[in-house]
Amino acid sequence: MPSLTPGQIIDALASGEPTRLIGAIETEQVDFKQAPYRLNDNHQKWELAKDVAAFANKRGGVIVVGVRAERRVNEIVETAVDIRPIPKALVDLQQHRGVIDSWIYPRPSGIDLRWYPPDAVADHGLLVIEVPAQQQTSMPFILREMTDPEAGFRGSIGIPRRDGERIVWDSPADIHRHMNRSVTGADLAVGAGMHGVAELTERARRRVDEMEQMQGWDNRPTYFLQALPPTGTELEGFYGEIRHNITQHQILRQDGFAPWRYAEVGVFSGGWIAHRDDVVTLVEPDGLITHGLLVSEGTYLGWYYNDNRTPEMPLVLHPIAAVETTLEFFRFFYSQILPRADGREWRFRVSCHHFRSNNVVLPPGHPTQRFPQYLLQAAQATGDEWDASFNQTGSPGRDGYEALQRLYALFGHGSGAIPLTEDNAISETMLQGLR
User: Model's pTM, two decimal places?
Assistant: First the structure.
């Protein structure tokens, strides 16, 4: 009975190979559903909230809707036995997000709902609800109301968690222990941290909007990366060394796509901002970094492949530029920011705006010619607003790879489409070997 990780499941679906899920078992991070949640019913709303909160209270995971699973004789876990795509017309993604936001406290961050294949490809598909690992300071995630007919009570809260393939509930003693600890100074800080994480995520969203407005990028395609610090972080040397180091950061390739070359550094909202027409980076005293790039002819992310582009042609996102600028963001974070913090785990956020409305496409691999014919059929972005987040993994190459997986998923690509990677990381050696 093989088990697949959430990343392997998304890779299989993005590669158009859903049958790779058959034979996979449900685990602490994987849940299969044959039928969609019917959100006109309060109990089904509770089911969705319960399933999401259970993953959020552990290590995150994925719910795949449209896969039939069964428990076979002499087995204790359910196994995927059939792929049964569901009609997309039966699912309102915005309603799903609203239920998650209103039934779970605090609101889990980075929840992503996505169809495979994308909306433009087919009217049936598999729905994936991805729940990223959450900040410890945000836990536990609590259901605001219990409506399970087997629970025997209503109007009360509940705390679900994944235990292998099962969902278990905190006992009254567990909940009492959470409450009892909250009267200590340490747990009061944790409680403040729950609110702090939500406030930080909202501030991160605002910063992206502010950077787009300041740069004049409204309604233009943009790719943002953000580093979200643990609550209470204060960077050492912020007012002295960091301003200088933004533009003096040691880049990997002098002739490559170096995002801060020729940027001007100034002050914005108490932080340091480096910007030019196609790149902007804001570093704030608590470590929140907002780094954005414009996708257009002549910019890094629109380089080379759009030289002979006409208005009716797609706008090609340069794969190598996407890989290198992503890696340089994380190299900057690990060399200039993380050593000035206190060692706690950070989170990262990927945000793409206006890709579909501007006909942005991303070819797999590394094309070698300007507008070869197949670029005209390269995968188009499946949406205009795309946000995803993940926890720090410990290295620039690995974190860059995690970010690119989420960027490529916007175009329906699996991780095998990302160039210059090996062992689930961007390869600096391969990048330096480019001519």
Answer: 0.63
